[in-house]
Amino acid sequence: MVDYVKVMHDDLRRFTAECFIKFGVPKDDAEVIADHLVLANLRGVDSHGVVRIPHYIEGIKKGFVNATSNTKVVKESQAITIIDGGNGLGIPIANKATDIVISKCKAVGIAAVGVRNLGHVGMLAYYTMKMTKSNLIGLAVVNAPSRVAPWGGGEPVFGTNPISIAFPTRGKPIVIDMATSAIAAFKIRLAAMKGEKIPEGIALTKDGRPTTDPKEAYEGVLLPFGGYKGYALSLAIEVLAGILPGGLLSRYVISHASTQGGFFALAIDPVAFRDYSEYLNDIDKLISVLKTCKPAQGFKEVLLPGEPEDRTYEDRIRNGIPIDLSTWKLLTDVANELNVKLPKVI
Amino acid sequence: MVDYVKVMHDDLRRFTAECFIKFGVPKDDAEVIADHLVLANLRGVDSHGVVRIPHYIEGIKKGFVNATSNTKVVKESQAITIIDGGNGLGIPIANKATDIVISKCKAVGIAAVGVRNLGHVGMLAYYTMKMTKSNLIGLAVVNAPSRVAPWGGGEPVFGTNPISIAFPTRGKPIVIDMATSAIAAFKIRLAAMKGEKIPEGIALTKDGRPTTDPKEAYEGVLLPFGGYKGYALSLAIEVLAGILPGGLLSRYVISHASTQGGFFALAIDPVAFRDYSEYLNDIDKLISVLKTCKPAQGFKEVLLPGEPEDRTYEDRIRNGIPIDLSTWKLLTDVANELNVKLPKVI
């Protein structure tokens, strides 16, 4: 049984942009959102792909985010920028913030940007990969509606607080992008739908008791990945993304798929440290050490961070993007409501 | 049975400095090393305390590190500094690098320093805590002799590649300091000595097979903490600390307790982002959320990163530092060899 339809990326991008334009989002912003969501689908990060269209639109309807953003730079120096996003859709705002941090980093060698008061910024790798296109090392973090307990705690304090770090190479960039929770919330929902158990050590019931029941976990709280170490990282991200830009703690962010806490990005120019070709040579050496590393029992090969997503990208850019039927139903509803032509099923 | 002796911190500091001075280390450097190692013991981080004295001295004897460092700034701009440590003892060099990054950060709002070619830098929290004393957010990472496999790999590629991040607060700083390996190498040695098993999922045999036997693990390879996420962090640290300053990949670092790969530190001035008292207010709020969080089953309270070390510090600064008898034996040998008076046992 095929439980998905397939569409081509350019058609899906056209559809996505049209939806947001019809809904009052400025054309440039809509096109950035479309580029972003479709790139997430192309890379296999479907949780941050076009499934977000109806959620973002619902967020606008409910007043959680604004279709048009009134973005303001509230503080600025040669290497640091603080932006108030005016509660606009997060992706175009974080995209502009990334352009700013790239430009300042090229001048100073290192730069950072903090954004408060913005909607969901999507897949962080979008921004760090953009930095690598300018030959910079990129880091991006966000806080988010609280779902994750601190180590030893039984209540949600942090969002899934993801981190992305990307390094330019001679080939495709090395791209890290991961939540600091032990599991993504949507995987728990999926396990509940399928009647499967979830692994031990990743979630607690609402009474703070360990559970492998996805329903109890969904009503309860997620745990940080890697125990107290993941907790520590989650806390660091809470300060960098939530506090430093003057935004909200995760605890006070409205829980919705269109919302976010704050956004923090940092860029480092390898050229400020050493000759760029020497940097690239050493990166090549590291890649070679990893790709020739003898696999552990049960593994076929060592993968670089981002390599699984690159492989999915290569497949989907040629052969189309599969959209699961429940997401397709949501997109069909949006298409009907806004009178936008659905992408052609291939 | 008491299997340790207790000494007072000031006496231990005097002893440590005298050992290094006798061994030809300049007085200022010896005093920084003494301050550093004794602070590690005070905080309960005994693996990075005075147990290192004989190892550092052995490293000098074997020519792995130099007693006097010929440190050179090889590249510099307003926010970035690259230092070649001339293969000197790591602690005084990393300490000077930290002073530089603090001073540049105060001017620019963000700054970084990379050091290649230096010995073991000890406990990273020493440097990040120093940054918090200047009201800065501090980050420090190092790579190190290879002991840790990448996710999916069966051979050592990375060092334990630790990371420290510290945040200034109105009280004691929040101090993260953790290896990106699932376990510290010395804990495996300890389990082997005691005939205990080690937990699953933290080490492989030399054939790349999972093991809970500490002897097999010691001959084999450690795993990153938190699976592929810890691997990703370890890789990021390898680039920042090893490659960016033009140093060695972990794989090429001589395996000895006196050696290190490269050192990378980054400082961020909260004042470049917002009013400092507003930053501190929000940190207070976050601390309050964490300290009032309902504990999970089996836990008494939520601890902040660095809080266990702070508690040990408060005890040991008053009541003395316990030194286990095998370390005491090593220190006695050093004292006899160098004709330095041992600290008084209290």
Task: Describe, in plain words, how this protein is organized in 3D.
The structure is a homodimer of 346-residue chains. Chain A has 346 residues and is α+β, with helices and mostly antiparallel strands. Chain A has a domain at 4-65 and 320-338: Malate/L-lactate/L-sulpholactate dehydrogenase, four-helix barrel (Hypothetical Oxidoreductase Yiak, Chain: A, domain 1, Orthogonal Bundle), CATH 1.10.1530. Helix content of chain A is 41%, strand content 16%. The first copy, chain A, is built from eleven helices and eleven strands. Chain A has helices at residues 9-22, 27-42, 52-61, 90-108, 125-133, 185-194, 214-219, 228-243, 276-291, 307-319, 325-338, and strands at 4-7, 72-76, 80-88, 110-118, 137-142, 163-167, 174-178, 203-204, 221-222, 263-268, 321-324. In chain A, the strands form three sheets. A seven-stranded mixed β-sheet of chain A has the order 2-3-4-10-5-6-7, with helices on both faces. Chain A has a two-stranded antiparallel sheet with strand order 1-11. The first copy, chain A, has a two-stranded antiparallel ribbon with strand order 8-9. In chain A, a hairpin with a 6-residue loop joins β6 (163-167) and β7 (174-178). In chain A, α1 (9-22) packs antiparallel against α2 and α4 runs parallel beside α5. The radius of gyration of chain A is 20 Å and the shape is globular. In chain A, 58% of the residues are buried. The mean pLDDT of chain A is 96.
